[in-house]
Amino acid sequence: MALKPCKECGSQVSDKAESCPQCGAKVKKDVPRWVVWLVLIFIGLAIIGSCQPSSTSNSSASSNSNSGLASEPKSNWVSNSSTDEMRGTKSQTTYTSSVNKVNFEFPYSGGSNLDLMVRNNAGQKDVIITISKGQFLCGMIDGCEVNFKFDNNPVQSITMVESDSHDSDILFIKYPKTANSVIQKLKNSQKLIIEPKFYQEGSKQFTFELSGFKEP
Length: 216
What we know:
Order of helices and strands: EEHEEEEEEEHEEEE
CATH class of the largest domain: Mainly Beta
Strand order of the largest sheet: 3-4-5-6-9-8-7-10-13
């Protein structure tokens, strides 16, 4: 027990007393230092605890993001498959569109894309190009020469033909050996320029970014 002066009258009062025996003023009791330190420690631990999960979460999210970028390279190709229920055969295709458009005269004005498709139909592989708006200038039997240029390699003239239904907006590589060669180049190249000829429009060039190609 200790004595201390009353804040009102100055009389000596025990620190255990509730009020001064002389004037009746309430005695203000000091908070023990160990209590103050304990409170400060709890506050500090609470602040550290609230910051730590956020840092860990951000680090984890950043790691997952970087991991995803490394493991999943961007692909410019779209793949799908279908089944012929009558014959029991399966067809797989993958295709991409040109990065540029070409403007034709009426009635095909407004910008046309060229699509490049690789199809595996029951083991038979085809390389096909289609124009969104326009007409290829090509023959069904004799075919026509379409220029292909992979990366910085020399220009290659490839024989292409119309479909059996005589559609003027679609062409197939005529010879299977050439089609297989083009497919191999699609795997190992980054860029391709295709230059077909069009009815009343002449030769037009379309550029393709080939990253992410997987043979169907």
